[in-house]
Amino acid sequence: MTTEFTGRTEPFRKELLAHCYRMLASVHEAEDAVQETYLRAWRSWSAFEGRSSVRVWLYRIATNVCLTALEQRGRRALPSGLGAPATDLSPGAPPDDPSVLFVEPIAESLVHDPATIVTTRESLRLALIAALQYLPAKQRAVLILREVLAFPASEVATMLDTSVAAVKSTLQRARARLDENPTDAVVEPDDPRARALLADYISGFENADLAALERALRADAAIEMVGTTAWFDGRVMCLQLLESALGAPGDWAMIPIVANGQPAVGAYFKGEPYGVAVLTPTATGLTHIHVFSTPSLVPYFGLPLTPPAP
Fold first, then answer.
1. CA quadruple 303, 10, 38, 155: dihedral sign
2. How far apart are CA 252 and CA 206, in angstroms?
3. pTM of the model
4. How many CA atoms lie within 13 A of 253 on its CB side?
5. Which of 123, 191, 271, 275 has its CA 20 to 30 A from that of 251?
6. Per-residue confidence (pLDDT) for residue 119, from 0 to 100
7. What is the pLDDT of residue 118?
8. 3-state DSSP call for residue 73?
9. What residue ranges define each of the domains in the chain, with the CATH number in brackets?
10. pLDDT for 48 beyond 90
11. What are the angstrom distances between the C-alpha of 276 and each of 44, 71, 105, 132, 200?
C-alpha cells in the first residue's frame, strides 16, 4: 500500500505546494497544508474508489485544508495594501495590529516543473498572489481552480461540495474583483530586458552606483519594505531611499535568484545575510521592488550564509 500510495501521489507534490501557496500566500503555511493533505490522503487511501483521478482527489483535499486554515486568520498583504505611501524616509514600523500578516516570497525550485514553467511563473507573481488575498476564500479557490489550473466547473463543484451554477457565479464575481486591480505585464526572468535590469540593480548596490539604479527604475516605480507598513512611490522618492541605503562600494553583495517567477536577489550587507529583494521587470523598466529584510530567507533560497569572494 505504501509503495502504491507514494507512486501515485508523489508526482503531484510540487504543484500542490504551488496551489496551497496561491491560496495562503505563505510558503511555510503552504508546506504545512501539503503535509496535512498527504496525511489525510494516506488515511483515506484504502477508501479511494477512483471515481475521480488521484490528482483531482488530492486537489479537493488540499483546497479544503487551505479553506480551513483561512478561517483561522486574516489575509496576508503587502505594504501598499495597508495604507498610503511614505512621505519621508523614516524607517517603516511593523503594523500596529499584530494580526496583520505579510505575503511571503517562494523559491522557484520548490514549485519548478519544466513542462509548465511559464504558466507556473505567471500564476505566482507577487502582485497576483497579493491580489488573490483580497478575494473571499471561496472565490479565491474557485478562481485558482478554474483559471489557473483549468479544472472543469463540474470538478470544481465536486471539490467544493457545491453546484456548477454556484461555481460559475462565484468565478464571475472573482474575475470582476480581480479586474479592478490589473497587474503589470512582467517580462520573464530569462528575457534580455529583465537580465539587463537585474544587472543594473546589482551593480547599483555593489558599486554604490545610483545612476545604475536610476536607469533601471520606471518613473512610476515603487519600493515596498515588506514586514513594515512603509512603501515608497515614484522614482524620485525611490532614489532618495536607495541613496540612503547604498553605503560604500563593496558594502553590499548580491546573488541573482528567481522568486515568484520574477528576477530577484539574495542580499548581503557587510558580509552578513540581509534578505531578498524581488524585482518586477517590464519592457520599460522596473515597476516594483519588494524588499524582504529577513536574513533567514537567504539560506531558504539555497544561498550560502556568506557571500562569495568578489
1. positive
2. 5
3. 0.93
4. 15
5. 191
6. 62
7. 58
8. coil
9. 85-134+184-310 (3.10.450.50)
10. no
11. 40, 29, 9, 22, 16
